[in-house]
Write a structure and sequence with these properties.
The complex is a heterodimer. Chain A is an alpha/beta fold. In chain A, helix 2 (75-90) links the parallel strand 3 and strand 4. Helices cover 31% and strands 16% of the residues of chain A. By secondary structure, chain B is of the alpha+beta class. Chain B is 55% helix and 8% strand. Chain B has 17 helices and six strands. Chain B has helices at 11-36, 40-55, 92-101, 115-126, 158-214, 223-237, 242-254, 264-267, 275-281, 284-292, 302-308, 329-344, 355-365, 372-386, 394-399, 401-404, 409-418, and strands at residues 60-66, 71-78, 87-89, 106-107, 131-137, 140-147. In chain B, a hairpin with an 8-residue loop joins strand 2 (71-78) and strand 3. The chains are: A alpha/beta, B alpha+beta. Chains A and B meet through strand 1, helix 2 and helix 3 of A and helix 1, helix 2 and strand 2 of B.
Chain lengths: 122, 430
């Protein structure tokens, strides 16, 4: 059995209070917001990527990943975020990382993740 | 954007240190994941994430190698798209080459002479696969890593390759463990099947022996088989486990094996045998024990059941005149089953007893000959079937329909059950 990590079959249940898409509809805006949360660092974090892919498939051209509730990102989290970036690139969408803390910013810079995204703060 | 943490004159050095710390974290997580072994698919998926995330790698895959099929088949992929092949045939030459180099990161561009790359180089190139890493554990090729480009755009340096190989070894161990487990499961399955076959053979042999024993006595044809079945019924009523019930049943089937050495004319005597003949006949429990003892039965009490199935709680039985607590429990069960069959079948010198008489006889002798709780177990089985509380027709098949349809049989059994002798048998473990 092949596990395509891009479209993985195992669906993690994500509660709405942690994970929601505060986006307007395609007609109003093409911006989608996804909260990374802390479960990004586990296999269940693949659901973040799936959610992002869905937003892109729904027409979002700018994907904002909000890290305000994310204290730390580990290697699994980096891999999942790279998947998000790859999916966005393939569909001509851009990715913005919002409210990334200092240590995570350092990690993203070190690994070259910041070559592919824009970092913003409120 | 957040300020960079490092402002010293050696940013490269600090970043390199941070990279190593991050990679070590991934390596530690991977070690824990492999050791956890909860779910192989999850382990492989997590391993790929950890590998790609440790160095910021955009895409990659983990393949397992099957030497039987001569094929690398992908177990987890990331960012490789639908057009990436699910499996790669591997030549023996390539396998040997990979085994020779061990777990080592090979630059795709430098390994064009391998058949794998000469045939599939185009797709690897199209997907920006820069490295392939054979997963070799204990001189066995277990799989392959396909490593794409780094998010930074940098080329892989020797440190990066060392980290990838270290993680590759962990993934190789995970695959090796999985292969071993699969092999163990296969062997366990084979052993289980073999055991089942041997058990069937053993039980068939036991039944064949029972038939051989019974063939010496034309009047009690089927006696050993019936005693085996009654013993099984009683053991089940006593709440024994399945394998204990099976053992009890075997003890019942073989309880009279000693009769094989008794002269046929004594066994078949159509009259009440004299003292000398009786002495000869009464040797059969001890002889049976001697026959059964050297055999490695799966159930320990089979020889004991043969030896002591004519003992009585009150010490008036034979061969040793044992009392209640001295008699093995299985022998008490077989004793009741044996007596019940003797009462309910025609003998050369007398007809079988009617059901009310049999039931009353069993009740009266509980505490003297029979252990009361064993008699009660037999009654419960009888009662359940007579009252139609079960679809089982075990007694009906063994005793005949008429016998089980005796008038007022249910109240008779119930009365006997309620009034079994108060003498409690102090039982030994079965």
């Amino acid at each position: 059995m092949i596990h395509d990590l891009d479209t993985g079959t195992a669906v993690a249940v994500v509660s709405e209070d942690v994970f929601f898409s505060a986006i307007a509809t395609r007609e109003v805006s093409s911006r989608a917001v996804v909260y990374a949360g802390d479960y990004l660092n586990k296999l269940s974090g693949e659901s973040v990527e799936r959610e992002c892919r869905e937003k892109i498939a729904d027409g979002a051209t700018e994907l904002i990943v909000d890290f305000s509730r994310t204290e730390i990102v580990n290697s699994i989290g980096v891999s999942i975020l790279l998947g998000v970036i790859d999916a966005a690139k393939s569909n001509g969408a851009s990715v913005v990382f919002k409210e990334v803390n200092e240590s995570t910013t350092e990690l993203f810079e070190m690994l070259g993740v910041t070559n592919h995204v824009r970092l913003i703060h409120n | 954007m957040a300020k960079p943490l490092y402002t010293t004159a050696e940013p490269q050095k600090i970043q390199s240190g941070s990279k190593i710390v991050h990679a070590f974290g991934a390596l530690a997580d991977l070690g824990a994941e492999v050791a956890n072994r909860s779910n192989f698919s999850d382990t492989i998926r997590t391993s790929l994430h950890l590998l790609l995330g440790s160095l910021g790698i955009m895409r990659g895959g983990v393949a397992r190698y099957s030497p039987y099929e001569g094929e690398l088949s992908l177990a987890a992929v990331r960012g490789l798209g639908d057009e990436f092949p699910l499996a790669f045939p591997l030549t023996r030459e390539d396998e040997r080459a990979f085994l020779q180099c061990g777990t080592q990161a090979l630059e795709v561009l430098d390994a064009r002479d391998l058949t794998l790359l000469s045939l599939n180089g185009w797709i690897l190139e199209a997907k920006d696969i820069e490295l392939i890493v054979p997963l070799v554990v204990h001189d066995e090729l277990l799989g392959m890593l396909f490593i794409g480009e780094k998010a930074s755009g940098d080329r892989y340096n020797s440190h990066d390759k060392d980290i990838i190989c270290a993680m590759g070894r962990h993934i190789g161990v995970a695959i090796s463990q999985r292969n071993l487990l699969t092999e163990l499961e296969r062997k366990a399955d084979e052993t289980r099947k073999l055991y089942d076959e041997m058990r069937t053979t053993y039980n068939d042999t036991v039944r064949a022996f029972a038939a051989a024993i019974d063939s010496k006595d034309k009047y009690t044809e089927g006696h050993s088989t019936r005693v085996g079945k009654y013993t099984e019924i009683i053991a089940r009523e006593l709440g024994w486990a399945d394998d204990e019930i099976e053992g009890a049943s075997v003890a019942g089937y073989l309880h009279d094996v000693g009769k094989l050495t008794v002269e046929r004319k004594i066994i078949n005597a159509p009259y009440k045998i004299d003292a000398k003949e009786s002495k000869e006949l009464n040797r059969h429990p001890a002889v049976g024990y001697e026959i059964l003892l050297p055999i490695h039965h799966p159930y320990a009490d089979v020889p004991l059941a043969a030896k002591y199935h004519h003992e009585r709680l009150d010490g008036r039985g034979y061969p040793d005149g044992l009392f209640d607590r001295e008699i093995p429990y299985i022998a008490k069960i077989v004793n009741l089953a044996d007596s019940f069959d003797a009462m309910t079948t025609d003998r050369p010198y007398k007809r079988r007893r009617p059901a009310p008489e049999t039931i009353e006889d069993l009740r009266k002798n509980s505490g003297l000959q029979f252990a009361p709780e064993i008699t009660a177990a037999m009654f419960r089985g009888l009662l359940r079937e007579a009252a139609g509380e079960t679809k089982d027709k075990r007694f009906r098949r063994l005793l005949g329909r008429d016998y089980m349809e005796t008038e007022d049989l249910v109240p008779l059994i119930q009365h006997a059950l309620d009034n079994i002798g108060s003498t409690q048998s102090i039982t030994l473990s079965a």
